[in-house]
Amino acid sequence: MSPKPTKSRTSVPGSPDASPGPSSKGLVRCSIRQGPVREFSPEVGGERARLIVVNRDKWVNGTVLRYAFFGAGGTFGSWAGSDALKSQVRKAFKKWADVGIGLKFEEVSDRSNAQIRIGFQMADGHWSYVGRQILEQEPDDRTMNLDPSDAISSGNYGVDVAAHEIGHTLGFPHEHQNPHAGIVWNEEAVYAELGGPPNNWDRSTTFHNIIRKISPDTVQGSSWDPDSVMHYEFRPGLIKSPAPYDAQGVHPPGGLSARDQQWIKTFYPPLAAADHENLPLLTSRPLSLIPGQQLNFLLQPTTTRYYEIRTFGLSDTVLVLYERTPSEDLYLTGDDDSGEARNAYIRRRLHAGRTYVLRLRLYYSFSAGETALMWW
Ligand SMILES: [Zn+2]
């Protein structure tokens, strides 16, 4: 159905803390606020709904994500940050980019031109919305906050906190909520720890961000990665099992783990020119994709006019159109038909002599090989 992602906010009063920070006690923790869960019509069942949920928060690969900071003064002055804080965030974006992925990050000064709007509100915790849900936020709202009351303005810890929040923005959940971890919590100790300063969380916030297991359908991979930047640090005494984490706690080493890097490339592999195929006008291009797979097409109109672009057959897809420029592919429009009884469709005026990039990602196909794409 609609491309509208549900609103879930990984709001953070907290820090991710996937790194040995100042100490595991007294860390500001990242909290994800969950918005309304997306509801599907009754005919959207099991496997189809599962695959939509897995893929819906992820970006179409090739997207340029622009980020901006709030400036000092004015209505939003309390969200401005020091140069040192901003520098930590830039380093964190570079960490993800340096893995070699198909997403690009670009800092812009005009926040109305940024999908990611970063504030540094004191005592508001660390948080970010998850994946494409950031697009649902009001233009003057933050999509991420990093809390300067935590020791994040210098050192690797602060970079890891920012990398964790960026991980949410890229569509990744908390690793300590991975059901494959098999963590048995010392629940009352966890509630007590997070209920005190600096987090002062109520029980439902702690449950939502720590105790609750994420549906196995929404995590990728079958194993637990206690080294992930998406994992909090936990002191001994909060985990009952498995050993040795009961006695030792969990202390991610900091930085992106090997599996963080593998995962990000699974969803956002580097895109090369050879990954783009010319799509002739008025030609039906059969699609045989597996769920999550993306195809990239080049459209080169010879006449300036309105064109229509559509998928055919029974499938759930997201379709995004960009205009290619010397510096980057500029986003024009997109459509997502997941969970709906219709096809992804774009109508747009295209100009002769320009090149457009069309990216299509499949969530679910009812019957392999019986879907197609065409523009006319
Ligand atoms: Zn988090």
Q: Could you provide a short overview of the structure?
A:
This protein is α+β, with helices and mostly antiparallel strands and 376 residues long. The protein contains seven helices and 17 strands. The model is unreliable at 1-25 (pLDDT under 50).
As a percent range, the share of strand residues is 15-25%
How many helical elements? 7
Using only CA atoms, what is the Rg?
A: 21 Å
Instruction: Return the string of H and E elements.
Output: EHEHEEEEHEHHEHHEEEEEEEEE
Cofactors and ligands: zinc ion
Class from helix and strand fractions = alpha+beta
Helix content: 10-25%
Assembly of the depicted chains: single chain
**Total DSSP E strands:** 17
Shape: globular
Characteristics:
alpha+beta; Collagenase (Catalytic Domain); Jelly Rolls; 2 domains; six-stranded mixed beta sheet; globular; disordered N terminus; binds zinc ion
List the helices and strands and how they pair.
Blueprint: E1 9-10, H1 46-56, E2 64-69, H2 83-98, E3 104-107, E4 116-119, E5 127-129, E6 144-145, H3 155-169, E7 184-185, H4 187-195, H5 203-211, E8 239-241, H6 245-248, H7 258-267, E9 276-278, E10 285-287, E11 294-299, E12 305-312, E13 315-324, E14 329-336, E15 345-350, E16 356-365, E17 371-375
Parallel strand pairs: 2-3, 2-4, 4-6, 9-11
Antiparallel strand pairs: 1-5, 5-6, 7-8, 10-17, 11-16, 12-15, 12-17, 13-14, 13-16
Helix pairs in contact: 2-3, 4-5
